[in-house]
């Protein structure tokens, strides 16, 4: 038990590290670039957009999508590293249950 | 074929499809009724989540509000999508692992307390009711304009349809209907946006057209520059600059984000997939599907605003097209010829402005203003109804599971059979539909605003309790209960004070730290967190069995048996 619980512990720590780093990007883009520094960024233009305005209304959403996709990838990797990828098993048990 | 004939055709076809699906996927057990048997694929669940969560507010109201708010409208865009990051990273996988039916289930079991469960039931029902009123109101606007029936009749038609498939199919029916509804609503939103983008900028992708130059017919120059120029000329606020204070925008965005992550009808969607891995995946799919609409909406807002100003400003009243007088009939556009010159003065100064346009009609009126073909206009109507009804159905399901499962089965009448529980669930949907319809007919604000209040309440009650429940093993029932009560009461009191008791005082001077009622939920969230953590420090730690549950939900793999 102690063996599996220490591996569970480091799995959880790796998970927290990942979540925190993704959330800091999330905060920087949305609250930082989209709201707090928006006027400063608006002095930069590309095409018909002011940069701050574009991040606030479009760019931030693309970043959000990217963050979730990175999270899905990284967690799948983490699961297989710690051999916790039990998706097949639990899918099977869910099927059995519904029958 | 006229617009009305097309509308009847599309509405009839889409409704038959939804009802057909509901009959095909009829629920026979409580597990099928509550969580669709737990066997929905991540892709289907992603679409269903997107439809569930993109409501009449997203489809009808949001782009319209942005077109009047300009850059300030950003809080709707970032707030409603950024919350998904929180949901995907902090909640969805763990709640799936926990593997029960409802949010009060989680709160009740994690905090080993019937009191906590009942408080959660109360919050879930309040949030869902506030939210569902916005949907009924949206459906009412659509029906009254396009089927040219009375607003009340419109709401009644919407109620009947939702009632029918929610009662019959439960979560299973709702999930598969929502997949169909997502397809209808996204198609309906994108087609006119693409049409208008090509007309105005020559770009087929609205997201790019948004930052492109206008065609000759529209006067050339970048769209946003042109819009800024027009706004200044007429005395409106500059479109790409903010008017609200930075802290207000900050807090509203935060409230909408925390709220998105705390909405019970969205959270329960992640109980319907087979595994933790699938829960993570379907949160990703959901945001992708949502982002398609959400990155298009600001483009639609800018197109619609430019078009509206071009069409009505300094034009003769008698030469207005047909859509103008039809919206006038519904009272959602009003024209008051103050200087009796027969010409519409549409300007920023309220003294001389002669035209008032309800923000909720912009998306619906947009294809007509741009003179698109009749079938496109009818398509938008079908899409708007899909958006309103799919969300309403999801919310009604939360209300019914809260009553039948959390209140009766888990608290007051643990001995009822599965059959009786199912009957109670269906009965409570019936009652909920009636109440929702009543408030839809007598709603107090714009659709997106009503919805923003629901998000504030969800943020201040559920979000901290669930996050702490997963990430703080030491969090106990005393802390969680105190936090939820303080957060919910504070937020509800603030909204009720400024919107119902004393609406005259509803201005930035009287607001707490300059935070509007739409944004107060984020302060409620902070209050909830602080109270919960403080109280938990001075009260006994949770029992060992509960701490084991927390250990367990942190790992993927074998679900805890239901």
Distance between the termini of chain A: 33 Å
**Tally of domains of chain A:** 1
Strand adjacency order, main sheet of chain B: 1-2
How much β-strand is present in the residues of chain B?
A: under 5%
Instruction: Write out the strand line-up for the largest beta sheet of chain A, numbering strands in chain order.
Output: 1-2
Polypeptide structure, described:
- Chain A has 99 residues and is mostly helical.
- Chain A has one domain (2-85).
- Chain A has 4 helices and 2 strands, in the order H-H-E-E-H-H.
- In chain A, a hairpin with a 2-residue loop joins strand 1 (45-46) and strand 2 (49-50).
- Chain A is elongated and about 55 Å long.
- Chain A starts with a helix and ends with a helix.
- Residues 86-99 of chain A have low confidence and may be disordered.
- By secondary structure, chain B is mostly helical.
- Chain B has a domain at 3-55 and 80-184 and 255-289 and 358-553: Sodium/glucose cotransporter (Up-down Bundle).
- Helix content of chain B is 72%, strand content 1%.
- The interface between A and B is large, with 52 and 60 residues.
Which characteristics define this entry?
heterodimer; A: 99 residues; mainly alpha; two-stranded antiparallel sheet; 2 strands; 83% helix; 4% strand; disordered C terminus; B: 562 residues; Sodium/glucose cotransporter; 21 helices; 72% helix
How are the secondary structure elements laid out?
The complex is a heterodimer of chains A (99) and B (562).
Chain A: H1 2-36, H2 38-41, E1 45-46, E2 49-50, H3 51-81, H4 87-98
Antiparallel strand pairs in A: 1-2
Helix pairs in contact in A: 1-3
Chain B: H1 3-24, H2 30-35, H3 42-53, H4 56-69, H5 74-98, H6 103-110, H7 114-146, H8 151-201, H9 206-209, H10 223-234, H11 246-262, H12 264-267, H13 276-312, H14 322-330, E1 333-335, E2 355-357, H15 362-369, H16 374-412, H17 418-441, H18 447-471, H19 477-501, H20 520-537, H21 544-553
Antiparallel strand pairs in B: 1-2
């Amino acid at each position: 038990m102690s063996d599996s619980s220490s591996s569970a512990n480091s799995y959880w720590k790796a998970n927290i590290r990942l979540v925190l780093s993704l959330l800091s990007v999330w905060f920087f883009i949305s609250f930082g670039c989209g709201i707090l520094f928006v006027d400063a960024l608006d002095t930069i233009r590309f095409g018909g957009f002011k940069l701050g305005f574009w991040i606030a209304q479009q760019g931030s959403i693309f970043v959000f999508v990217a963050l979730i996709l990175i999270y899905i990838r990284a967690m799948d990797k983490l699961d297989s590293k710690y051999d916790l990828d039990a998706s097949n098993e639990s899918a099977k048990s869910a099927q059995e249950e519904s029958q | 074929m006229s617009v009305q004939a097309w509308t009847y055709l599309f509405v009839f076809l889409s409704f038959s499809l939804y009802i057909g699906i509901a009959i095909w996927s009829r629920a026979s057990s409580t597990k099928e009724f509550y969580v669709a048997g737990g066997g929905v694929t991540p892709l289907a669940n992603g679409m269903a989540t997107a439809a569930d969560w993109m409501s009449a507010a997203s489809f009808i109201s949001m782009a319209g509000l942005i077109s009047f708010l300009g850059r300030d409208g950003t809080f709707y865009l970032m707030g409603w999508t950024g919350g998904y990051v929180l949901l995907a990273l902090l909640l969805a996988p763990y709640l799936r692992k926990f593997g029960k039916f409802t949010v009060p289930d989680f709160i009740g079991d994690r905090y080993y307390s019937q009191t906590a469960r009942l408080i959660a039931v109360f919050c879930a029902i309040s949030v869902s009711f506030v939210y569902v009123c916005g949907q009924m109101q949206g459906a009412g606007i659509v029906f009254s304009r396009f089927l040219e029936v009375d607003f009340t009749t419109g709401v009644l038609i919407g109620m009947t349809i939702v009632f029918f498939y929610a009662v019959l199919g439960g979560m299973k029916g709702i999930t598969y209907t929502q997949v169909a509804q997502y397809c209808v609503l996204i198609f309906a939103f994108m087609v006119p946006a693409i049409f208008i983008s090509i007309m105005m900028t020559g770009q087929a992708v609205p997201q790019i057209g948004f930052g492109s130059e206008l065609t000759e017919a529209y006067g050339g120059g970048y769209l946003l520059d042109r819009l800024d120029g027009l706004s200044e000329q007429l005395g409106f606020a500059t479109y790409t600059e903010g008017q609200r204070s930075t802290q207000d925008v900050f807090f509203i965005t935060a409230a909408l984000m925390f709220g998105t992550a705390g909405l019970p009808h969205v959270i329960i969607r992640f109980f319907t997939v087979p595994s933790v891995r699938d829960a993570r995946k379907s949160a990703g799919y959901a945001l992708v599907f949502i982002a398609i609409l959400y990155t298009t909406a600001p483009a639609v807002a800018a197109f619609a605003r430019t078009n509206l100003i071009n069409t009505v400003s300094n034009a003769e009243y008698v030469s207005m097209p047909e859509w103008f007088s039809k919206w006038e009939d519904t009272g959602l556009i009003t024209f008051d010829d103050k200087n009796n010159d027969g010409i519409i003065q549409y300007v920023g100064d309220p003294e001389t402005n002669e035209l008032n346009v309800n923000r909720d009609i912009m998306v619906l009126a947009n294809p007509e203003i741009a003179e698109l073909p009749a079938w496109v206009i009818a398509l938008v109507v079908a899409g708007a109804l899909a958006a309103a009804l799919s969300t309403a159905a999801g919310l009604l399901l939360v209300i019914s599971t809260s009553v039948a499962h959390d209140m009766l089965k888990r608290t007051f009448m643990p001995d009822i059979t599965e059959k009786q529980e199912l009957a109670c669930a269906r009965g409570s949907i019936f009652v909920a539909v009636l109440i929702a319809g009543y408030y839809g007919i007598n709603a107090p604000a714009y659709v997106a605003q009503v919805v923003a209040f629901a998000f504030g309440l969800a943020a201040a009650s559920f979000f901290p309790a669930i996050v702490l429940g997963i990430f703080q093993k030491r969090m106990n029932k005393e802390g969680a209960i105190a936090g939820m009560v303080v957060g919910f009461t504070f937020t509800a009191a603030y909204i009720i004070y400024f919107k119902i008791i004393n609406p005259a005082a509803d201005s930035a001077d009287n607001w707490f730290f300059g935070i509007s009622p739409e944004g107060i939920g984020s302060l409620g969230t902070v209050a909830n967190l602080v109270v919960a953590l403080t109280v938990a420090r001075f009260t006994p730690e949770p029992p060992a069995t509960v701490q084991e549950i927390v250990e367990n939900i942190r790992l993927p793999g074998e679900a805890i048996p239901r």
